[in-house]
Amino acid sequence: MDSTPSPSPSSPFDLVSSALGRYIPSGGAAAAAGPADAQGDSTTSRRVPDNAAASRQDQILGAVNLDRDLRISRCNLDAPVFAGLDAVVGGPFVDLLPPGDVPTVTRRLRQVLETGEAHVARIQRLRRGDGSELVVSLSILPAAVPQEGLTVSVIAMAKRLHLYAAETAIGTSLDIGETAQSLAESLLAWGDVAAVDLDFAVWTGEGVTERAQGRIRLRRAALVPDRAWPEGYVTPGDDLPSDASRLLAQAVRRDDAPQAIVIPDREAVERVLGSPRVMRALVPGDRSAGVACIPLVLDGPPPVVLGVAEVWRRADSPFRDSELFDLQELVARTVHHVDLARQHQREHTQVLALQRRLLPRSGGDTIEIATVYQPATPDSAGVGGDWVNSFPLPDGRTALVVGDVVGHGLGAAATMGQLSMEARALLSAGLAPDEVLEHLDETVSLLDDAETGLTAGYSALGSTCCIALYDPVSHRVALSSAGHLPPVLVSPDGHAGPLTVRPHPGLGAEFALREPFDVHTFGAPPGSLLALYTDGLVEDPAESIDEGIGRLADAVSTVHPWDALQQGARHVVSALAPVRQRDDVTLLLARMIGYRKGDTATWRLPARDDAPARARAQVSALLRQWHTRDDTLDNVLLLISELVTNAVSFATGPITVRLIRAGHGLLCEVGDTGNGRPRLSRGGLFDDNGRGLYVVHKLTTRWGVRWTDTGKVVWAEVAR
After folding, report:
1. How far apart are CA 539 and CA 585, in angstroms?
2. Alpha-carbon span 345 to 338, nearest angstrom
3. 116, 139 in Cβ contact below 8 A?
4. C-alpha angle 436/473/476, rounded to 5°?
5. Burial level of 647, CB count in 10 A (0-12/13-18/19+)?
6. Chain-centre distance of CA 272, in angstroms?
7. Which residues are within 8 A (CB) of 682 and not within 5 positions of it... i.e. 6 or more apart?
8. Is the whole model's pTM more than 0.70, yes or no?
9. What integer pLDDT is reported at residue 377 of this predicted model?
């Protein structure tokens, strides 16, 4: 074993080496102990007696310096535990690795060289000269400037310390795949190959109950080490063959109780597994002959098996009783983390289903809609409360809504669904965007009132929302925002930038902070592109939020008018969103189309007694140009006459008449300066009050009222 003195006290190699004296047993030398005597590791070629001395071992550190060609330039592996490792100065570091691990570890080494980012605590096997292997925790660190190359630190841990370290590491993620992977990596200390197979219901987040063993379905959740596996072998994400699932379930549930079992050699494995197909699926290779199967048991009345962990090793190194006890203890200590990840997966799936349900399905004849929603990565706090919606209003306009509810999980999802549905109902009833936000503000305040019993420990104060209403006739958009980030508008000439929207403290703010919601109106001619989004798309710790919005504007401006809008939206998100996102990413793109000029007509009439007749004449001439059927023409003329008569009778100021040819219907609008709300009532036979609206109700497929800054508009749709 070569050992080189350190010239610099500040390099990672020297920092690790300086700590070795605290861990190397006194009087120990590399040549004084063989592999089995030093570690008592389960993978050595000699069978180690099962006694107390074999399990009482200290944690040992080692360090190896590599040059840019990944050759050993210095090393300090003098502790007895590293005896037999042929770490020769000038030799390739990969000579210490099992052949199957060389590509993966080499890729990690090159990655640290290129990026300068350390790769910490990888469970790895090192190959001794006698063919045995040593399990270590391997960390790859960039060398200190001005030196080049890498420092590789290795830690060989005693089994009991490994149990503690594994239990600490396994519960760090809420992603069920990563949790299973951490468990498998910890189990690798007892064998050559470790795998974790979970019940499919656990994998999908469903509840696991008692069931007939013939119906069990296992899916491979984790497998270590990372290497190329033979054809037919089950790798992560694959379902085990039904025979293999049934055999594993029967093996661990003997006498109707979950128990750990050991199949000691290949003959016994072949006898238990039976068919060659099952052998190819479960046995990792010719060297691995014996296997220990440990059920993942969730305590309860009765206990529930979540899956099976398998540890494979060579037949010449059988499992000792103490090792099997350690394996069972590790699985027992960590199985609740698997169940927590299952519950998180279930909640994640439920909230995600609600999010997908709220996404708009399509646009319409006057606007094109594209949406992209990417939930936070599963190991984050959970799916957030981001929501987006777009829907046509009965009067021909289109509503675009985006919101971000504070928090994650089911509480945020419930509030998100309530606010989304309330916004849609209020907008469909004709309320302006600022009025809708006022109602949502009150709703959030009520939800936060503990006396209502609706909060259940969750607060939505500070949630944000942005509402935009697009008028396809005037080609204008009315927008109101409650604390939300400003939308980005791309004009037909390609100019892109955020809209200037007055900031607001958000929904449910304290009374002293509440201000009236503003309505921002801007032109959106045909070909304009409007982007609504949530903060997960533009937030980056390395830059300001304004820079993130600027990057979004640049990305949206690259969406050409002839591009498919959905494809363009995905391109924008892929260009901006991080790979592993801690928050939901939501984007809504709206391409304005509007009505053709010849499909709309508007007249302004004074509020005089002759207004109904003048309106009928103007509308009649236009409908004949549109080649409208005679019965439809008569219905529209009667409808216009009734609406204009009501406007003259009950309002003042000029009257606006607008006719729109849309799809399979005609949309008739009559606006006035009155503030009274027309109401449909069932009058008597000789009662003229309300007769006009009753006629309107009978002639139309639907009708309603919307409010404007100067009064109201009564609209009605007639089939043509």
Report:
1. 10
2. 10
3. no
4. 55
5. buried
6. 41
7. 690, 694
8. no
9. 59
pLDDT at position 485 = 92
Q: What is the maximal distance between C-alpha atoms in the chain? A: 116
Tell me how far the alpha carbon of residue 585 is from its chain's centroid. 8
DSSP state of 452: G
Cβ neighbours of residue 546 closer than 8 Å, sequence gap 6 or more: none
Say which residue the tokens 């929904």 belong to.
Answer: 507
Q: Which amino acid is at 355?
A: Q
| Amino acid at site 635 | N
Strand pairing class (655-662; 665-672): antiparallel
Token pair recorded at residue 338: 């698997």
Q: Which H/E stretch holds residue 488?
A: strand 488-490
**CA contacts within 13 A on the Cβ side of 458:** 20
Cβ atoms of 140 and 109 within 8 Å: the answer is yes
Could you state, in chain order, the average pLDDT of each consecutive group of 10 residues for the chain (720 residues)?
46 57 36 33 34 44 89 86 86 88 88 86 79 79 81 74 61 74 83 86 66 65 84 86 78 72 82 82 76 82 81 81 82 80 70 64 76 69 71 86 79 78 88 91 76 54 90 91 92 90 80 75 92 88 86 90 87 79 82 86 88 90 87 87 84 85 83 75 48 74 81 84
Task: Give the Å distances, CA to CA, from 668 to 474, 619, 664, 699.
Answer: 15, 10, 13, 12
| Model pLDDT, residue 460 | 74
First vs last C-alpha separation in the chain: 93
User: Can you give the pLDDT at residue 480?
Assistant: 93
For residue 453, the model assigns a pLDDT of 42
Q: What is the pLDDT of residue 29?
A: 32
User: Among candidates 403, 397, 391, 334, which has minimal Cα distance to 363?
Assistant: 391
What is the DSSP annotation of 238-297?
PBPPHHHHHHHHHHHEETTEE--EEE-SHHHHHHHH-SHHHHHHH---SS--EEEEEEEE
Neighbours of 85 (CB within 10 A): 23
The confidence score (pLDDT) of residue 168 equals 61
| DSSP character at residue 536 | G
What is the full DSSP assignment across 660-720?
EEETTEEEEEEEES--PPP------TT--TTHHHHHHHHH-SEEEEEE-SSSEEEEEEEE-
Instruction: Tell me the DSSP string of 176-233.
Output: HHHHHHHHHHHHGGGSSEEEEEEEHHHHTT-------GGG--EEEEEEES-S---TT-
